[in-house]
Amino acid sequence: ILCLLYSALPLFLYTHHVLILTGSRLQRLLPAVYSDGVYQPMKEPELPNPRKISNVAMKGDSGLSSVNNRTVMAVFFGYHVISEVISTDNFGCPAEFLNIEVPIGDRTFDPNSTGGVILPFQRSQWCKHSGKSPNNPRSQVNTASSWIDGSSIYGTSHSWSDVLRSFSTGKLASGPDALFPKESNDVLLMWKAPDPSTGSVEPMVYTVSFGNNRANENLFLQAVSIVWFRYHNYLAEELAKKYPSWKDEDLFYHARKWVVAVYQNPNEQVPQDVDALLMGMISQIAEKEDNVVVEDLRDYWYGPVKYSRTDYVSSSIQRGRDLGLCSYNNARRYFMLPPVRNWSDVNPNLYQNNKKLAVLYDNDIEKLEILPGAMLETWGDPGDLVSEILHDHFQRLRDGDRFWFENTKNGLFTPEEIAKVNNISFYDVILAVTSVEAGDIQKDVFTWASDPCPQPEQISAVKLVPCAPLVVTNYFEGSITGYSVLLLVLCSFPLVSYFFAWVVAQWRKKDLKKIQKKKRVTSIKRVIADGVSAQEWHGPKEPMCSVFIQIEQDQEIIVFDSRSIVIRTITLQNYKSVSVIQSNNRGCKTLLIKVPKEYDLVLFFYSEEECVGFIEQLRMNGIPISESKMKERSLLKAAVTKRQRSLILETFFRQSFAQVLQINQSDIESFEAGSCSKVREALQCELSRTEFADSLGLKPQSLFVESMFSLADEDGNGYLSFREFLNILVILMKGSPEEKSKLMFNMYDVDGNGFLSKQEFFTMLKSFIEISNNCLSSDQTEQVVESMFKEAGFEKKAELTWEDFHFLLRDHDKELRLTQLRFKGRGRVVVYNKTGSATFWHLYCATVYGENRRTPVETGGKQNMQGVHRENSQMAGKASNRSGPQNKTTSTEPRLYTEAKKETYKKNKIHQKMQELKRGIENYRRHIVFMVIFYGITVALFIERVYYYFFEAQHTGLTEVSLPGIAISRGAAASISFMFSYILLTMCRNLITFLRETFLNQYIPFDAAVDFHRLVAKTALVTTVIHCGGHAVNIYMFSNTPLSVLSCLFPQVFINDGYSTVLKHIFSYLWLVTGITGVFLLAILALMYVFSSAHFRRISFRGFWLTHHLYVLLYILIILHSSLGLLQEPKFHVFFIIPALIYVGDSLVSLSRKKREIGVLKAELLPSDVTYLRFQRPADFEYKSGQWVRIACLSLGTTEYHPFTLTSAPHEDALSLHIRAAGPWTTKLREMYSPKSVAELNSYPKIYLDGPFGEGHQEWNKYEVSILVGGGIGVTPFASILKDLVFKSSLKSKMTCKKVYFIWVTRTQRQFEWLADIIHEVEENDELGLVSVHIYITQFAEKFDLRTTMLYICERHFQKVLNRSLFTGLRSITHFGRPQFEPFFISLQEVHPEVHKIGVFSCGPPAMTKNVDKACQLLNKKDQARFTHHFENF
Fold this sequence. Notes:
- There is one protein chain.
- Helix content is 43%, strand content 10%.
- It contains 51 helices and 31 strands.
- Mean pLDDT is 76; it is low at 1-8, 15-19, 520-529, 663-674 and 824-905.
- Its EC number is 1.6.3.1.
């Protein structure tokens, strides 16, 4: 009895009725006792361990009867009254724990002496305005009303009371049985205590609705509450009978008035047989009133959900420390009681207990706390201190309550009614609401008497079933699989998106192939008759391919691929016998043809009949075969594969070059023991025509290969021996100009008569042109031949001797001297000594853009370069002094490619690095400053949130949950909010185009908006991963955190009702708003990022277009995701509002343009799959050269917009675009504007226009010298710029730009013939020489290759004689191979020494722009003119 009563005793001492509203701050009678004087409670070693106090002072035998025969009814009636006036059971928020350490070896809680066991204790709810200084120490909050006003019956608020009411006849709402309240629901937060005896979280009884949220805590308290529920309804019925005119409100409140009055009168689950339970409580004698607490309360009281047991006594002692209560003696002094001086004076009957307790308190009686002292002084009746506290408290309750029933001034009751209330006891209440008859129970229900109900046997712990021990629930148990699955599912989003993108890409590729196949002009295909289909085996782990085999009458086997293209020709006419081996197992359908001097042919036929039939065809065509059989495995092992043959050929070529260039074997490779046999095998092998052609990177059927091979094949056996290959290699690598010209002469002297006819000369040129994809027509070739003959004075000659032929090449001795035959994968010798032998042998792979070669300027050397600068001098038209006086030409171009004459001072490495850093900062200062500002804000937001949650949010209780996870996730969320908001500004194209023309362009790199967009997106992706990682930790930690803590942090999600556990199953978190939106956000981001990658964007632009338009849904989900505000107020809108408004405004501007249909004036299908569109120019459409637009064509069945650069000039009345068909959309567009489609539609399809938009190319006119570099379709912006430049110069407009160098890099001059027309127009109108054009045709090998030398000679001949290019028809210089940007830029620094800044504008493949940028960066490290690079990739 006393333990239950005394657990609230500290609150009686604490309470002073000044503010008595629910949730009011409790007022202290005595000063607070905290270790810091403010809020930190007293604990060890200042005070003893509460569990030790419980074990020493409150432990004892149970089963002793009450000294005064008090009944169990008195216990729970008193407990009901306590809950009426005081409640501090609600935990404080944020959660603070004052856990009780269990002594090692504790019999109940630590039987195995493991140590480290705790009894969780969470501090009570406190007033937020307290606990700030010693003058304002922490004060707790009373969640009850403090008055005896029936709040435990009717609730502490009007809303609670309304939920309990039935609103009919003044009664409280009942369940199916009118004698019991209705079952509780989620509207009322009823405390549902778990069953500590089973460790189950299932409630002991079903919960019903009461005014006290803890009324369902046990059966006895529940029974008392039901009595008052019934009594209210009983009075309502009686009042309704007496006053039939009263309405529900009158009946309810009058009944409530009488119930409260009876409740105030001091005279005094849900089991269906509540009457019997009440009778048992009335007849059962309670435990003896002493210091002993039964073990059910001391060892087996139900604990928090995670811990099934706790010590009620230890928790009560700890609660007193939490409340900062004074000592036992100080309380006695306050109530004018004499303080105790000796431990024996507390209670002489318990002196032995006192001595043990004294040891714990260091024998200092002044340290004794109020609860242990009050318990010890009790014997039968409450001690002096308890009596004074209770008397003082309830007297103040009565005297301070203006609604007390005995207060005649409030007019609630008449004197007669007051007298009637005084005569009503709890005995009368029980008789009125139960089936108990008068005489069944004693009138004093709180004290037992022998009559009329006999006293049952006194209950003790020995006679009860042993209680289940402490069980610590692992909330995460059973969720590991779900948690792992959740992480795997989230991590699989990118993979699923990638797979989806791959499927879309494959579908788009297939669709594109269908379109290309449909539009492809049907070519004349070779008719293959009497052929056989099979699968060719290439070797182990190599995929087989479908082939078609045809046997010719001249004993040749021709192998075709699935596209009917010849991939191999095998000649067998010079062999007496060819070994043919057929497999004798696995269906006997594998055939091996041993090809002498080549790799073998292994065929897998589809049946044995086909295999046998093919062997028969070999015989019928006269091929001598030697047939045998073996197992398939042995057959494949015996075959010489193409891979094996290539290894032999590699050794063949290495030894050949080593012999010719006089290189030691150690310089080539280190031969191991036994490798000599491989060398011998290689030297004995012979090259077939196919292998020879493959080594040159040419087709076996080309005229050049046939001529070269026939010349080298001295014995005419159709193969080149090592010696034959070496003979021709010596001439090509080390021969004189005369020997090389003689070689070329003999190659094409077909009849061997020692003369070269015009036809043979024509055939020679034709073979070179054939290598270059027939870059010249037959008429052009004949024109070249006639022109060269005429210029040399041979126009009357029908045939040329070798001397005549060499005379034709008189101006090009140095080209012939350096000419070699480039073999696939092998480079030429770079430097020779005086004797012509090789000093080193440089092998390099196929030439790529921007091959890095050092120049004399870099090395400080003299003019001894035989490669780049020699070529550059020729391209500038400068005559060489080494070739004799006949080589003189007139130079019309400045020396663009000569090396610099000014030698620079060589600085130390530190100074060089500092200079590089200085120039790098100067080049990208705008980018650096802007990036520092943007990412500075991003990092600052991240750090600010992390710092806040680590150091300034300790009061929120996050340390009890998941501080690292929350801090990281919130920091990442702040950064994400900023980046995802302001990334919108990078897509405000109209705004960027406008701002580029303002002073802000000097400080903000608007041209890098798209690159910055990608960079921010990638950074946001990384931050999102960090954010998700933090939440992964959070979910795990939340699953292991008590509900009382989570309900403090997240009251919107969690409610602590004493029963419910945390969301144990991990997927339950996903059903929250933040969880659902978070998962969808990850899915959308995965789709957007995967489809926006360069690979998938190039293959499926429509997929990129559609997925990127999910950004609307993305931002909606982000707003919803952050709207719940679990830890802080939503802040995403703070970052989002301004960028969103700007973006919406920018989009509206574009939308206003998109609604206008634009008529197409002209459409033309140009070569190289280029579509030319010329369309109307809107009246208000103003743009600058180099700008781009976006167009859409609804006739294609899609609304997607694609960006293209305008090729028209600003002064032109119409707009034009040149669009290359590179994907499905552009291919369909080409079909849509084909003559056939236009004829069917009877008009050109309309287009929709959005733009113009600016980029870096339009700044070409801000530099004195500008370099325009266009590759492929990347030349389109420069078409507009060149036309605009010439137009302005013709008007003599004032321009900053004084010189423009245009470099056009194209695979073949036919690829963009439309641009050649524009350049021709520029050349005709450029009277001031503002534009210098250089064209690089990359399909040609460089001019020092034997295959290109004659074409180069012809080109230079045309340039000299006709002042135009043979290939383009332009006056512009045409170069073979890829440009070397670094020496070109170096020469510009010398040609324009007065210019300090040169603008470089490139557009084309990433490889090309990368090398342009690399050249700019290298030269910007030097103290000369700075190159500012603006580029755009496609």
